[in-house]
Specification:
This protein has about 140 residues and is mainly alpha-helical. It contains six helices and no strands. The chain has a single domain, classed as Four Helix Bundle (Hemerythrin (Met), subunit A). It is elongated.
Length: about 140
């Protein structure tokens, strides 16, 4: 069954737009640190949404193309491992790092957590694009 990937594509595109806005706006010396932090918060939010979409589409694809039993009630690590076995992603450890950073987004009041989540968001963008490419190639 072919998956409708439109929500995943929108989530990744929103992440891209927020990262691009950050790069453009952070070069503007007239902006305050509060302004930059607000833009970074947008990047973190879009990272969270895109990450959630990615793992949900991993699960849906495996349910439809392998077996629902394989991913029923499994941990994220196991979901990422099965996804790697099915060539939807390469690096399970990297995706676990993204998962950890995503969990930090509920604690973004802490500057260190926000900084870590922001850095992960920048790294995640390329991984999410690659996942989408692989998913599109196998979405039949």
């Amino acid at each position: 069954m072919k998956l409708d990937l439109s929500s995943l594509k929108r989530a990744i595109a929103s992440l891209e737009k927020s990262i691009r806005s950050y790069h453009v706006l952070s070069a503007n010396i007239a902006l305050t640190e509060d302004d930059i932090e607000t833009v970074k918060a947008g990047v973190i939010h879009n990272f969270k949404v895109a990450f959630e979409q990615c793992w949900k589409f991993m699960k849906r694809w495996i349910e439809d193309n392998v077996s629902a039993d394989v991913v029923d009630g499994v941990s994220r690590r196991e979901l990422f491992r099965v996804s790697a076995e099915n060539r939807l992603l390469d690096d399970v450890s990297l995706w676990m790092e993204f998962h950890h950073s995503r969990n930090l987004t509920s604690h973004t009041c802490d500057a260190d957590n926000a900084d870590q989540a922001f850095v992960s968001a920048l790294l995640f963008f390329d991984a999410a694009k690659e996942f989408l490419v692989r998913l599109e190639a196998r979405n039949d």
